[in-house]
Amino acid sequence: MIAITHKTNTLCCHTWPYRRARVTFLVSMKATNQPASSDDNDPVRWDTPVFVVSAGRSGSTHLTNTLNSHPDVAITHESNIAHYISLTHSLSYQPLFTVREIGGFRFHGLIPEQYAKNFAGPLLDGMMAAWRQLYRTEFAHKPFTVWGDKFQFPEVVPDLIRVFPKARFVYIVRDGRDVARSTVLHRERYDTEHTSDGAPMTFPEICQYWTNINQNLIDMLKGASSVLRIRYEDLILKQDQTITEVLQFMGLSVDQNIFQELQSKAEERFRSHGTSKSPKASIGRWHQELSEDEKRIAQAEQGKLLAEFGY
After folding, report:
1. Which residue, among 177, 249, 237, has the nearest Cα to 207 in the 3D structure?
2. For residue 36, what pLDDT is reported?
C-alpha cells in the first residue's frame, strides 16, 4: 500500500515536541460520510467516547487508573491507536507517486486514485471495528459501557472531534512548575524526556513544552462539543468532589469501588509512576525544590497560562 524509502528521524512516546508552537506532523483523516455511531442493541456508547488529555506529568495516569476502577469504564493508557488509524487512513488515499514526510519517515503513494477512493472508506471502517474489538478483549472482565483512551500528545484531537462529534474530553492540568520539577526527576530515574535529536531537554525547554502542549490543547479543544477541565491539585486534595464531577460529566453514577480503590491502591500505583513520596507531597514541591533562577525561568515561560489555570 505504502512504500517507505528511508527514515530520517524518529519520534517516540518519550520525545516531546517542545520546540513547536503547534505539532505539525499529523496527517488528518478525510471527513467520513457518517460519524461514528452506536448499535442500539450494544450497551457500549461507541459514539460517545471519553478521552483524557493533558501535558505529560500532569496526573492523567492517576486519573485514568481511578476511573478504570468504575465497573462501567474502559479507558486505555496511551494506546496510540487513534494516531495509527489517522496515519494509515490518510496514506490510503495519498496520490500515486507523490512523496510526503511524516514524523521523520518518507512515504510514497502507491494506490491509483480510481481505486483509492473506494478503498479508503472500507479501510477506515475495518480499523474502527478492530479498535472496538481491542476494548472487548482488553476489558473482557467487566461489562463496560463507556470507553476511551488517554493521550499524552494533542495532535490527534482534531481527528477525534471529526470522527466522534459526541466525544467527551477530560482535560487535566497541573501547575507547570511542579510539572517541570517532576519531569527532571522522572528523566533522572528513567532516562526519558529527550528532544527529537536525542539530547536531554533543558529546564527552559521543559517549561516551554508545558506551555506549548497546553496552549495546543486549549486551541484544539475549542472544536469539541463537550470538555471538562480539572486541576490535578483538586483531584488529590478534593478527590471525592472532583471524581464525582468527572463521573457525572461522563454520564455515570458514583460507584464506591472508586473510593475504595483510592484508599487501598492509589498510593501504591502512584509510587510506581510518580516522583514524590505521596500524591499530596507532589503538590507545591516547586517552592522548595526549584532554584531561584528556575523559578524565574518558569514564570517567564509559563506565567500567562499559570494565571489562566488559577495558579
Report:
1. 177
2. 67
Q: Output the 3-class SS for 44-88.
A: CCCCCCEEEECCCCCCHHHHHHHHHCCCCEEEEECCCHHHHHHHH
pLDDT band at 309 (very low <50, low <70, confident <90, very high): very high
Give the pLDDT band (50/70/90) at residue 206: very high
Residues 6+ away with beta carbon under 8 Å from 176: 207, 210, 211, 214, 298, 301, 302, 305, 306, 311
More confident residue, 34 or 7: 34
Which amino acid type is present at position 262?
L
Q: Look at residues 142, 89, 141, 98 and name the one whose alpha carbon lies nearest to residue 116.
A: 89
Which residues, in sequence order, are bridge partners of residue 77? 150
Cell of 67: 476511573
Say if CB 60 and CB 150 are below 8 A apart.
yes
User: Per the structure block, which three cell numbers stand in for 196?
Assistant: 527529537
**Total-model pTM:** 0.85
Instruction: Give every CB contact of residue 47 below 8 A, 6+ residues apart in sequence.
Output: 35, 36, 37, 38, 164, 166
Q: Which residue segments constitute the domains of the chain, with CATH numbers given?
A: 2-33+40-308 (3.40.50.300)
CB 134 within 8 A of CB 82: no
Please give the average per-residue pLDDT across 274-278, as a whole number: 78
**Taking the mean position of all CA atoms in its chain, how far away is CA 226?**
16
Cα(254)–Cα(245) distance, integer angstroms: 9
